[in-house]
Each structure stands twice: as structure tokens, then as C-alpha cells.
Automatic annotation (TrEMBL):
It catalyses: L-arogenate + H(+) = L-phenylalanine + CO2 + H2O. It is found in: Plastid, Chloroplast stroma. The keyword Cell inner membrane does not apply. Its EC number is 4.2.1.91. This is Arogenate dehydratase. The keyword Amino-acid biosynthesis applies. It is an enzyme of class 4 (lyase).
Length: 292
């Protein structure tokens, strides 16, 4: 390992979109492949890596819930985000034709992002989820698998010597995945760029207060870019009189710095209604590119 370079953990094997996202977030870094999302978190905690770059949502497939849950379970800080256009290809062992493909393997997100196109292509093939897109390509190449195709990047085709049967098979050409950059310590974000803050909270028991939380942002003209709710794992169900209600933790991203007055005030007001509250990070927004 080159000690001069930043070491950035990602989930998957070389050729995964997450590796490309790590390179986009930290040009010239040394990337560290990890089997699972959790291993990427741990490698930063254990100082094997300086940063981790992990997918959090995709414009077609939606949220990557596992990473929302892991953000809460671990104590890493979000210090940045990067949007990566995701261009999927259907890859097969050289010489294999689409007619003989009986199985399509890939990461569940990639399968979801290509579902309609796979149906349109008329493939008579079962879908099977594996850990990552490039790992699917690697599996076909290493095991000479001839009845299976993988959904992965053109770079994975090149790395593992596979042929591209179809190019651009995502259901919408503007397919983009947003990744978060995680570090052990928070970083004071630059003041000259639009900032975003990510928080997570649970509401005080018995307070139907979600609308009040939203109002705390609305009255200060703070734009919310994302709300995600996940089961409240330590108290998943609450019985109120005869009604059983599901309890949630809410993840909110808003367009303001936690250091500016309106951001600070909104968070102070919000904490009047919460039993638990944590700032996950305050970082420059990736506003993407029109061509993406
Ligand atoms: O399997 C990969 O190549 C990944 O980097 C994972 C992942 C994801 O988890 O969403 C990343 C980007 C794409 O949306 C598809 C898959």
C-alpha cells in the first residue's frame, strides 16, 4: 500500500460502480475492495482505510436500506457525497449468444434498475441476486459459466474478459447512484459551496409530531432533499390504547449547514419532539452534471 495516498474502502470487487465512485470522490486514492458494506465501515473504524464510499440511493432502484441501517449502527461521519451515472451492460462468456442465457446475475439494485429492459429483450432467464455487479462478471469468467449473463459495467467486461451482449440496459438513461463518503472524524466543510446536512432521529413516544418536524424546516425556508424511514429496531411496535403502531427512525437530508443560524434553530426546535437525535454529517452537496 502506498502510504502517501488516501485509502478508500468500497463494497465489491474491481470494476464495481462503487470503485468508480471512490475514484470520483477521491481522485488518485488507493481503493480497498470489501466483501460487505459492513466490512467497509469496519475497515475505516479499524484504520485499514481512511474513508469508505458507499451507495445510499439510486434514481431508479431507490434507497439502499442496508446502508441507512449501518449509518445508525456505526459512528462514522458523512463528509461528502458523489453522484455517479450508472450505465449497465449485459455481459457473457465470449461466444455465448443471448438465446442461450438462462440466468441473469447481478447486485439486486442493478437487477431492479434493468428489470423492464430485461423483459423487453425477451430473455428467457431467471434473475439471481449476488453481492455486486463486478463480482457477477468475475464469477462467470472464473468458472467458464456459459448459460448465465451478468449485469455490470463495461469496465468489468474489460477486466474479466467478457463480451457485451447489450449496452445501456438500465430502464432510464439518466440512471444515477448517490454515494456517501464516510470518515472517522467530521470535517469542517468549505464555506464557499452549497452544503447539505444529514440527520437521524426518532420521535418522542406518543407525539404525532412528524408534521411539526417538517414545519421546523418549512418556516425557515430550508429545503429537504430526502426523507427515509426505517423500523425503530429497539422499539419496533408501540401499543397505544388498542392500536398497534409501527415505530420508525427518520433520516432527513436538508439544504443548509448545521453551523448557520437557521439550520441550528431548526435542529434545536426538532429536538423538542425527539427521543433520539444525531447529526450524521454536514458536507458539500454534489449537484451533479446536466449530462449525467
Ligand atoms: O455492485 C456494484 O457494482 C455496486 O457498486 C453496488 C451498487 C448498489 O449498491 O447500488 C452501486 C451502484 C449501482 O446502483 C448498482 C449497484
Amino acid at each position: 500500500m502506498d502510504a502517501q495516498k488516501l485509502h478508500v474502502a468500497y463494497q465489491g470487487v474491481p470494476g464495481a460502480y462503487s470503485e468508480a465512485a471512490a475514484g470520483k470522490a477521491c481522485p488518485n486514492c488507493e481503493t480497498i475492495p470489501c466483501d460487505q458494506f459492513e466490512t467497509a465501515f469496519q475497515s475505516v473504524e479499524n484504520r485499514i482505510a481512511d474513508l469508505a464510499v458507499l451507495p445510499i440511493e439510486n434514481s431508479l432502484g431507490g434507497s439502499i436500506h442496508r446502508n441507512y441501517d449501518l449509518l445508525l449502527r456505526h459512528t462514522l461521519h458523512i463528509i461528502g457525497e458523489v453522484q455517479l451515472p450508472v450505465h449497465h451492460c449485459l455481459l457473457a462468456f465470449p461466444g455465448v449468444r443471448s438465446e442461450s442465457v438462462r440466468r441473469v446475475i447481478s447486485h439486486p439494485q442493478a437487477l431492479a434498475q434493468c428489470e423492464q429492459t430485461l423483459t423487453k429483450l425477451g430473455l428467457n432467464a431467471a434473475r439471481e441476486a449476488v453481492d455486486d455487479t463486478a463480482g457477477a462478471a468475475e464469477h462467470i469468467a472464473l468458472n467458464n459459466v456459459r448459460d448465465t449473463a451478468a449485469i455490470a459495467s463495461a469496465r468489468a467486461a474489460e477486466l474479466y474478459g467478457l463480451e457485451i451482449l447489450a449496452n445501456g440496459i438500465q430502464d432510464d438513461s439518466r440512471n444515477v447512484t448517490r454515494f456517501v463518503v464516510l470518515a472517522r472524524d467530521p470535517v469542517i466543510p468549505p464555506a464557499d459551496r452549497p452544503l447539505k446536512t444529514s440527520i437521524v432521529f426518532a420521535l418522542e413516544k406518543g407525539t404525532p409530531a412528524l408534521f411539526k418536524v417538517l414545519a421546523a424546516f418549512a418556516v425557515r425556508n430550508i429545503n429537504l432533499t430526502k426523507i427515509e424511514s426505517r423500523p425503530h429496531r429497539s422499539c419496533p411496535i408501540r401499543v397505544a390504547e388498542t392500536v398497534k403502531r409501527f415505530e420508525y427512525v427518520f433520516y432527513v437530508d436538508f439544504e443548509a449547514s448545521m453551523a448557520e443560524q437557521r439550520g441550528e434553530e431548526a435542529m434545536a426546535e426538532l429536538q423538542e419532539y425527539t427521543s433520539f437525535f444525531r447529526v450524521l454529517g454536514c458536507y458539500p452537496m454534489d449537484i451533479g452534471h446536466k449530462s449525467a
